[in-house]
Specification:
This protein has about 110 residues and is of the alpha+beta class. The protein has three helices and two strands, in the order ββααα. The protein has a two-stranded antiparallel ribbon. Strand 1 and strand 2 form a beta hairpin. Helix 1 packs antiparallel against helix 2, helix 1 packs parallel to helix 3 and helix 2 packs antiparallel against helix 3.
Length: about 110
């Protein structure tokens, strides 16, 4: 299995493609994406003059929870599931949650 991370940005969507190499690389990718989401959330709140700081703080804690959850899931895979299938499911879940957070960041007022 080979894992590789590539970030492709278009006008309306951002997609992350991950191909497997090692758990360490996957953890680094999760950390990288979550760090960028965290920074983007702070920047959006500052540049958009967001009045509701509670929603920003909730979103920031959601990003931290996302990172901790997926690093833990990478470190301790579920027994009984083939590794390739497990990490495919993990990556799809991560992409889905990242896209939800990106939508929430874009909707900050």
């Amino acid at each position: 299995l080979i894992w590789y991370f590539d970030h492709i940005s278009t006008e309306k969507t951002t997609k992350y493609y991950i191909i497997m190499s090692s758990r360490k690389d996957i953890k680094q990718t999760v950390n990288y994406v979550c760090r960028d989401l965290f920074a983007e959330c702070i920047a959006a709140s500052l540049y958009n003059n967001v009045k509701n700081e509670e929603s920003v703080n909730t979103l920031l804690s959601c990003i931290i929870t996302l990172r901790n959850d997926f690093v833990c899931r990478i470190s301790h895979p579920e027994p009984g599931i083939a590794p390739k299938k497990y990490f495919t499911i993990l990556i799809n879940d991560f992409e889905k949650r990242v896209n939800e957070i990106v939508d929430q960041i874009s909707n900050l007022h």
